[in-house]
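help with this record:
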Amino acid sequence: MKTNSLNLLLRLCLVFILFLSMQLSGKSNFSPTAFFQEDSIRKTIPYTLPWDDMPIDLSFIFEKEKPAGKHGFLKAEGEKFIFQDGTEAKFWGTTFNYTANFPSHEYSEKVAKRLAKTGINIVRLCVVDNERATPNIFQFTSGENINTMNFDPESIERLDYLFWCLKKEGIYVFFDGLVFRIFKTNDGVESAGKLGIGAKPYSNYNRRLIELQKKFNHDLWTHINPYTKLAYKDDPAIVLFDITNENDLWSQKVTVEPYRNELEELYRKWATGRGIIVSKDTVEFDPKQNINIANFFINITENYYKEMILDMRRIGVKIPIVGTNGWTENAAYLSAQMVGDFIDAHSYWSLPEVHTVIFCNDPMTGSLNNIIPHLAFYRVHDKPFFVSEWDHLWPNEWRAESPLLMASVASFQGWGGIIQHAYRNTSDKFDVDMIGSSAFPSNYGGILNSFNDPAKFGLYYHAALIMRRGDVKHADKTVSVKLNSLLTGGGKAYQLTPEKHRVETVLPGYSANGEIVITPDKSLVGANKEEVLSDTGELYRNLKRKTGWIDTPFTKAVYGFIGKDGKRSLSDLTVNVKTEFAALAISSLTSEPIKHSANMLLTAVGRADNTDSKYNANRTQQMDPGHGPILIEVIEATIEIKTDKKKLRVMSVNPQGFINGYIPSKYKDEVFSFEIGKEYQSMYYLIQEL
């Protein structure tokens, strides 16, 4: 829609009067500001992604991959995940949390098809053991749960059906073991009420807690799904398993008795066997300063993982198993993970404080220490690497930069898969027209919902193609970062290097295999660290300008504050984005590169938020989450594609998947050009041959 000059002048006057009154009141730093209100010239349109469908369907590209499991069981071979028939596995996915794991049959059918349309091929079924919400795996309805020894029949049936629906659509499953389980006295657990969720970290060494975990695993893996007619252990659609989630002795303190005393007795016995003298005073468990404690923790953790893995192998579980996840940056902690079949890691950008909704509103593109260095630290030689949790969370307004950046780095590094956390925490049909939850900020889980976020979930089409199709090539060279102590963490070596070369961490006692070997304190990119170009020439990020681009034959993209860059030329593509912040990506939807493709998807999205959402003046605290519909900022840009297809047309697509209209375009001297943002405004545009 066009705003006439009179209306625009009136709106500007109102904004000035509001600003002046705020200044005179002396409360300008605390006054809430509505989304997009600070710039009344900015154009927005409603664009709420439907909960049960998607505007574009890419499932035809991966049709041959259905059903999940057709290639046989997944296995870890060297640094790759390989299916039984020799096919290399690459995963792009999302996470179901809490009650989202136990939806109605109707919901399961629709959500599985919806995910397949975006190109997602793995779902992590997480926190199935959380009794703070129902259904959970132990109980279907709310009420007192006296033990956690058995699965609820109705809950497990719902889980079975969801799994079956995902499998049919070519979507694999990553299962978690111990996550949020709250052990009970009736489970035979001493001081159960003091242990907290997952009994972390006591569940790493206490015999009763380990035996209860074994029973849970046995019941899960030997359970026969009535829809697939297979026990979970015999179903190749389940590809990965995590023994316990974010559970370790390094970051979680042992304080509850008699468990603290039990750990001290184990340590004294361990130390005596190695000739280590231990004072009679109470042992201080500080693994970051005391190498003996660090080695003891490694030993305890390794024994726990080995016992759990051996027990599952005896049951008949065939797939790769990992201990826990790299979420605290520590070499000793990483060393303990080496007994698993692969390495897994977690990292977040802009994680708000619980309940206060105070958050970092910085863009990741301009950061030297975004989530990439932490993840790269956990990649080691000769083991596949997987990221089972990452996110760039709403209400951060720059999150549209992250799906493209994360998928391209993961593909460049040769990581086996990457899962965003999370899709949704419930399967209810409320608040489907707004980001988060109406209960937010009291419901912290609301910020984790991404299923209808145009700025993040809306870019999954391109991210899936980058990762699964391999649109971004693997790095040409490998850098080995050689650690000299188990008491160290990351360092300068991980800053930007993962965007220049492939990176692997070399623990003490292991050999470096890269063409370049450096120590953690050495930077490869240079002193100014303002920009980085991949050794393949396909990826670029400029920290000073807060921009980045991807330039491959099948997917091309620009993202960040690209409105300040003016015209940007990639191979066979030139864009001139007028909107300050945007992520603009174009992918071929055929087996031909963009230059020769007769079917392409263009996505243009930037800032997105709920209607009437409000923040403090600095936009670092959310005062009101607002309501539906979701608004997106209209991205204005001119686009020129060098192509041999003379009869292309551009169609604007609305949230329901219908054509809004046809964008005016022209073809001259092998260049197809058009402008978006003026007519038939949208975030999705199909470019197809007539």
